[in-house]
Structure formats: structure tokens, C-alpha cells
Predict the structure.
Amino acid sequence: MNNLEIRINEDPEVWDRFVCNSPQGTVFMLFDFIIGLSKHYELVTLYDGDEIVAVTVVFLNNENMPQESPNMFMLYQGIILKDYKGLEIHSRITREFRILASFLEKLTSRYDQLSFCNSWRLSDIRPFQWHNYHTPENGQFEIKLSYTGIIDLEKYTDFKEYLSKIRILRRREWKQASVEFVIEETNDVDLLLDIHDKTYKRQDIELPEQVRKYIYSIVDNALRSGFGMMMKATGPDGIVESVKFFLYDYACAYFLFGGNNPNGRGSGASTFLMLNFIKDAIEKGLKYVDFCGVNSPNRGDYKTSFNAELKPYFVTNYFKGRALPIGDDS
């Protein structure tokens, strides 16, 4: 590890190949997804000789400076590492630690500020915690703990077994809604935005127009690029009661956006639609379903009721010259 160097804007095919083989790789880090979010970014790779050992994407603002916080609604656009599962645990931990620490040194030498939303599979956060440990005045990482919900689909032989493990109320809603609602795939992004708006307005929240445009861009690009799916649940009266949008990669389905007709609350349409996506993921042979956050008191319990396990993930923000407040050293 004496020849570590960073390179900027890797070849997209090389980039995607690394992402697909990294334990922390997700759809959020694939090249086509990144370019659908922004035209201003840098793909940063860390090479050890002629081998890539880590990568990250740095999104830039209009002043060509790295963004101060993660992209809205986007998880796991952080640092991902080469797969070292073939090593003994003690060797793997040491190797990954050294690579991540070296990468952070090189990144903070190039950029005055950085923001990463790291995968729940990046469990060793010590390189972020210990960055400039003895010289905090040079800048340290602020670390925020969040949680997501993960359904490990490999625990179940089929959807029937999975269904038997979720909360009884969810099973009742599934049974009731299955005779009342029709599930259809749709590419109508305006429909999603409309019902999404209604969901937030019920909570007296008005989404800014810029946020709505951002959601539209994400969904439209994902549907056209083939790594997104949107479905709607329609009642016998012809009214769409629920719409949900999922992202997909080679191993996981991600629930990213959804909304429900406020007049149809309690109908079970939302649960019926969610379970249809999970059923689809099982039938596709995917390994996981990720609820992309269980950090809201209003929705966290609903998501875990589908037998999702809590997994911590960390948002890490760096500003050159900013030390952590006294007392944050743990």
C-alpha cells in the first residue's frame, strides 16, 4: 500500500464494475444514476498501483465547490471499498482501515469540504472519527448516526414464508386489499408527485417546487434507465389510492418514494402495494429490500412492521479548519 494515489473521473465502465463488486456498492453509486442527478460531480478513485481499492463521488455546487450536505433523498453516496472478504477478519479490518484512512487524507488535501452518506455496510467509522485526531484545528468529520430498515430476503424460502413473519395487522391488510385493489405498473411521474403532495399536505407540509422537480428528475431518469419501477393501487371506484417507487440494483430493491390518498387511509392499499414490491423482489432473487431510512417517528414503526432489521448508517461531513466541539471526542 505504498503506491496509493487518487484519480479523477474514472472510465464509467471501470467505475460501474468496481461498484457492482464492492460490498458497499448500490444503485446510488452507478454512473447512470449519478449523471441523472447532476452535471457537476467528480468520480474519485483510489488506486493501489494498478488496482482500484476505494471510490467515492463528490458532487459540486454552482461555485464548483463540494456540496456541504448529502443530496436530498439520496442514501449511500459515500466511500465504498474493494471486497476483502477472502481475508481473515483481523486482516480485513486492518486493510480496510488503512485504505479508508489514507483515502480521507488524500480527499481532505484536495477538497476544503466533503459530505458522505455511507452505506450501512461500512461499519468501521473510526477513520472518520480519528481524522486529524491530534490536530483538530486542521478539520475533523462531523458524524451523524441514522438508521435504515433491511429485509434479508435470503432468510425466506418464498413469499408465503415471509408473509407469515410480518406483523399480523400487515397480513390482515394484505388479505383485505387483495380483493379490493388492482396493482398496475405505471410511468406517470406526475401521478406520483400529485399523491406524494397530498400525503405531505395532510401533515401540513408544503414541498418546495425545487424539491418536486428534484423528485421528478430522479424518478424519470431511473424509469428511463431501467433501474426504477413504479406501481399504483387502484380501488373499485377507479381512484388511485397508493403509488410507490422503488430503485433496483443487482442485489437490492430500495423503497424511495411513495404516497397515499388521504381519503383512503386505513384501506390497506399502501401495505398491499409494499408487499407486492417485496414479493416481486423475492421472485427476482434479490437479496435485500431497503426501506431507505427509518428515522421518522411517523413512519419508522410502519416500515419495521414488515420484519425489517434496523441497520445503522453514518453521514460524515468535513470542513477544513473546523474542529469538533469539545465533548464530541468519544
Q: What stands out?
A: The mean pLDDT is 91.
